[in-house]
Please model this.
Amino acid sequence: MFSGGALGQMSVVALGIMPYISASSFWSFLTVVVPYLEKLKKEGEQGPKKIIQYTRYGTVILSMIQGFGIAIGIERHGVGQTL
Model:
């Protein structure tokens, strides 16, 4: 459904914005739990910029993990293979 019926041609771009949303939620949670990040969040202009940078790094890592998971799932179901 997400690939327009061409699961064999699906790419990491098909992940959409979910890795960013997940990373953003994760860092928002951590700023409440970890005192260093809570302090960083309140540090003028540079603190929130640093947290946004961490969110972007987290997005890349989550994209790789989720992309790998999608690839394994597609491979196990035999999508894109010819008879």
In short: The helical segments are 18-33, 35-41, 46-77.
